[in-house]
Structures are given as structure tokens and as C-alpha cells.
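Worked example 2:
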Amino acid sequence: TLTQREKKKAVAEESDSDHGDFDPNALREHEEFTKVKNIDQIELGRHLMDTWYFSPFPPEYRDCKKLYFCEYTLQFFKQRSQLMRHLSKVRTRHPPGDEIYRNGNVCMFELDGKKEKNFCQNLCYLAKLFLDHKTLYYDVDLFLFYVLCEIDERGAHVVGYFSKEKASEEGYNLACILTLPAYQRKGYGKFLISMSYELSKIEGKVGTPERPLSDLGRVSYHGYWTRELLMLLASHEGTISIKDLSNRTAIRPDDVHNTLQQLGMMQYQKGQHVICAAPGVIERQLKAAGGPGLVVDPSKIVWTPYNAEREYANQRQ
């Protein structure tokens, strides 16, 4: 039987990766605090959510069992009356940053951690309540955040997010990923993974999630890679190489190779690896991989890749 923690991890949609290193003293302090979950419950908009893990909120919040979050700024308060006063002054009903996607009642905003530091740090505090990894402090300046929202007459409500480094030497296209508990089981986690690859395609790069992956992260990505690669193989006639598959999906070549190998579709013939995919096998494996969740419509993305040199030039002006 699954433990309570395993059950919680089984419904979280996240990539178990850290945003930065920190010194041994900070680590020791963090280990002390992580022994006990500090915040038991949060209120975010119309949703009340029980928390799962410790989050390193500022000291004055560590004895607080319930926090009230503004769903537009993600500022947090000890009392609902404080939140209501704050809401009376909030004019915008959506996250800061640039809206890069809208389709029906779903939209996504890109936030630069350096420009929108408060929102991004608050998002990290919030996310850590539902992510089981050992990050104490987020240097948000170095990251871009992609915040997914549901839209209704009251505004845009945060559903989840993923982050990625502005400049990743390893070619990572995703660092952390989370769908908030109130919005899980709706295909949003798959949407976030898919969006990270759609942005890589626009950049003209192949990508991969930051390692190490959690157990659930591995399952989620294996499902995504399987669906993308097999749908391409199913519609393709003739031979195709791993490099071709990588270029057309933006999935890193070794992820392509490993996925096909796990599916039993790689054979070693005459000194080289060959893709062997019979139609019946493809159909069976696609069915086993499950549905794609909420599908990204690439035609709805309005986005320009981050350019560090251009950003530096703008700051100099």
C-alpha cells in the first residue's frame, strides 16, 4: 500500500530539480526546518488547499498555520482582512509580465525573474509547499517563469507554472514544474511540458528537462516523448533517423534514443542502431502512453525568445 506521502507525490506534476546551490550553513538551517511542515493550509482565490511540504517563508510567517494569498500578485497574508485590504488596491487581475498564449479560457504569461522579482519569489514560496525538494533560496534573477492561468469574469487565476534558466549551458528547457493541487487531473501538467518544447521549437533548439527527474517526472516525460515520437513515426513513410526525430520534435537525441530503446524499437544492425517500428507496435504503445492532456495550439503562441545581449543593451539606455 502507498504511504500518504507517496500518494501525494503520485498526483503532483513536477520536475524534481533545484534552482541553485546554497552554503552549508543555510543547508543545515533548512534541514532543521524541513523536519516539520510549517504552513498547514493556504487560501488562493476560491480554493482552499492543504499543503504537503515545508517552505522557507520569512521568519515572521513560520508560526502561521494558514496563509491567504492574493491570486493576482501572490502576496501572502496572515489574516483574510489584510488580504481584502490588499485586494481593494489591486488594479490588475492577472500576473505581471507578457501574455504569450491565449486559447479559450487558458492563457500563459512569461515573467522575467529579474524584472518581476516579488511575484516570482512569492510563486517559489507557494510552489515549495507542494514540491518535495531541498531548495532553500531561489535566485529568481536567472530564470524565466511561465505562468499558466484559467480565465473567467474575475480575471486570470494561477493554475501552475514552469521555470527555465535564461541561459542553460546544458540545454535545459525546464527547471521546475508544478500544477497546483486544486487544478490537477485536468491535463495541465502535460500542457506545461508540451509548451516548454513548443518554445524550444521557436528558438530552433532541442531541449531537455533539468536533471535529476523525480519518479513522477520520469513517468510524465516518458509519456510525452512516447506520444510525440510515435505520432511522428506513425505518419512518416520510409526511413527516419534519430537526428531527424530530434529536429522535428525539439527532443534531445539521447532522450529520443532512450525512449525508443525502452519501447523496444531500437535494433543494432550492421554496426549501427536502427529504428524498427511496426504499425501494430506503434498503435499499442501510443495507447499505453495515455492521452496528451490539454493540447497546446502553436498558432496561438506570440513569443520572442529571451535575448541576453538585447536585454543588456536596453538596460544601458
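Confidence is low (pLDDT under 50) at residues 5-21. The longest helix spans residues 215-235.
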